[in-house]
C-alpha cells in the first residue's frame, strides 16, 4: 500500500514538474513573440518615418533636380560646394575663394551647386545652422541666394552662441534687396527647414563629412585656394 502511495506521489511530482516546464516554455515563447512583434513594428515605423522624412520637403526655386542644392550658372564643369553658415572655415573659404567661384560662373566655365548643410547645430543653442540654411532657401525664392549667403558669412555668429535671431536674418535679407514682408514670412514659417534636412541627409549619404567640401565634376578638391579651384576646373574641362 505504502509502495503504491509512494509511486502516486512520485508520479504527481513528475506531473507537477512537467506542468511547470510547459508553463515556463509558454511564458518564454510568449515573451519572445512579443519582443519580435515590437521589433517588427519598430522597424516598420522607422521605415515609414524615414521615407516620409526624406521625401517630404519643399524645394526652393533654383534648386537642382535632386533638390540638394541651389544652382548658379550653367558652365560645362560642375562645382559642388558644401558649406555650413556657422562654419568659421567656410567663412574663410568665402573670403579667399568666393570671388573665384563667382568668376568661373560669370565666365561660363562652371556651374556651381551650393549645398547649405546643417552639420553644426550642436554648436548653437537655437539650431542656427538649420535656421540660416532654411533662410537661404527663402533668399533663393527671392532670387538672391548668392548675395544672401555672402551676407550670412559676413555676419557669422560665434560657435556656441544662440546665433542670429530670425529678425536679424530677415534684416540681412532686406539688406540684400529681398522683400522684407515676403522674405520675413518665409523665414518665420520655417518654409525650407525640411529642405535643409534633405540637403544635409543627402550630403551625409554622399560621404561629405565636413565643411567646406568642394567637388569638381564629382571629384574632391584638396587645394581649395583660388589657384587650386581654377586648376581643377581647367583640368575637368579638357
Secondary-structure topology with pairs:
Elements: H1 2-55, E1 70-72, E2 77-83, H2 88-106, E3 110-116, H3 128-141, H4 145-154, H5 166-175, H6 180-189, H7 193-205, E4 213-216, E5 219-220, H8 226-236
Parallel strand pairs: 2-3
Antiparallel strand pairs: 1-3, 2-4, 4-5
Give the overall shape.
elongated
Side-by-side strand order of the widest sheet: 1-3-2-4-5
DSSP helix count? 8
* Unreliable parts: 41-54
Outline the biggest β-sheet.
5 strands, mixed
Q: Can you characterise this structure?
A:
- 59% of the residues lie in helices and 10% in strands.
- It has 2 domains: 56 residues; 167 residues, Glutaredoxin.
- The chain is α+β, with helices and mostly antiparallel strands.
- Helix 3 packs parallel to helix 5.
- It is built from 8 helices and 5 strands, in the order H-E-E-H-E-H-H-H-H-H-E-E-H.
- It has a 5-stranded mixed β-sheet.
- The longest helix has 54 residues.
- About 6% of the residues have low confidence.
Summarize the structure.
59% of the residues lie in helices and 10% in strands. The protein has 238 residues and is of the alpha+beta class.
Observed structural traits:
single chain; 238 residues; alpha+beta; Glutaredoxin; 2 domains; 5 strands; elongated
